[in-house]
């Protein structure tokens, strides 16, 4: 899967609009993921899972920041996320299927907060971008 | 058999009551064909699917989207009995249409995004969880008779 120049421009465009609220979008993405796909909570047994949890907020902020970094350096996502890729391979070892689940929830959050920006074309590009990020993060698993 | 809590049934009914089946169905199918272009393989006779604009404006896409979502309405009415409700459609999709059941999951995910965009803040996390469960069990019921 290759991100075309219009994919890149769609992703950068929508991320620019989302930047002011990215921290809260990250937290909301995680909250939705934990509720919709309870098996994802197994990676966070130590977390307070209640709505508004400080841990979810903090972790959501981290996840969002990584997505922003990837969008800002969209020509070299593997290079940009290389350290995170090492972390996921060596330490976190989150099963690859879960990145799709996170991606789905992130798209839902975008749809909720920016429905008019999530045109079918932008939706397609954002989905490709999220798949690419997931692939990069699992690339060194074996 | 799938168990539905009273809250889940309420969330399903409330959302479904406000869905414009024709618009939502058309949009969901169009987005499926745009976001996952390989799904176009089932629609060679639909005419022009050459661009997102062509797909969105294609009358066969709209009509088929409406048909698919109307059928989804049967699920909403028969939550306790989905396998029986979809038995014939399942056989059809296997024996005549030859559709990989993975496509039902893809369409379900797209439907969730369309609902989220339509309902925005009203599409609460609990609502999303319930509807993601519903699209999952519908996909499962549609795949059930495959052999």
UniProtKB/TrEMBL annotation, chain A:
Protein family membership: Belongs to the globin family.
Organism of provenance: Herpetotheres cachinnans
InterPro entries attached to this UniProt entry: Globin (IPR000971), Globin-like_sf (IPR009050), Globin/Proto (IPR012292), Hemoglobin_a-typ (IPR002338), Hemoglobin_oxygen_transport (IPR050056), Hemoglobin_pi (IPR002339)
GO molecular function annotations of the record: haptoglobin binding; heme binding; iron ion binding; organic acid binding; oxygen binding; oxygen carrier activity; peroxidase activity
Residue intervals of the Globin domain: 2-142
Pfam families the record matches: Globin
Name this polypeptide is given: HBA1 protein
Keyword tRNA-binding tagged: no
GO CC annotation: blood microparticle; haptoglobin-hemoglobin complex; hemoglobin complex
Keyword annotations: Heme, Iron, Metal-binding, Oxygen transport, Transport
Protein purpose: Involved in oxygen transport from the lung to the various peripheral tissues.
Classification via Gene3D superfamilies: Globins
GO biological process: hydrogen peroxide catabolic process
Automatic annotation (TrEMBL), chain B:
Subunit structure: Heterotetramer of two alpha chains and two beta chains.
GO cellular component terms given for this protein: blood microparticle; haptoglobin-hemoglobin complex; hemoglobin complex
InterPro entries assigned: Globin, Globin-like_sf, Globin/Proto, Hemoglobin_b, Hemoglobin_oxygen_transport
Name of this chain's protein: Hemoglobin subunit beta
Family: Belongs to the globin family.
Pfam families: Globin
Protease recorded as keyword: no
UniProt organism field: Herpetotheres cachinnans (Laughing falcon)
Keyword DNA-binding included in the entry's annotation: no
A Gene Ontology BP annotation from the UniProt entry: hydrogen peroxide catabolic process
Keywords for this protein: Heme, Iron, Metal-binding, Oxygen transport, Transport
Role description: Involved in oxygen transport from the lung to the various peripheral tissues.
Chain ranges of the Globin domain: 3-147
GO MF assignments: haptoglobin binding; heme binding; metal ion binding; organic acid binding; oxygen binding; oxygen carrier activity; peroxidase activity
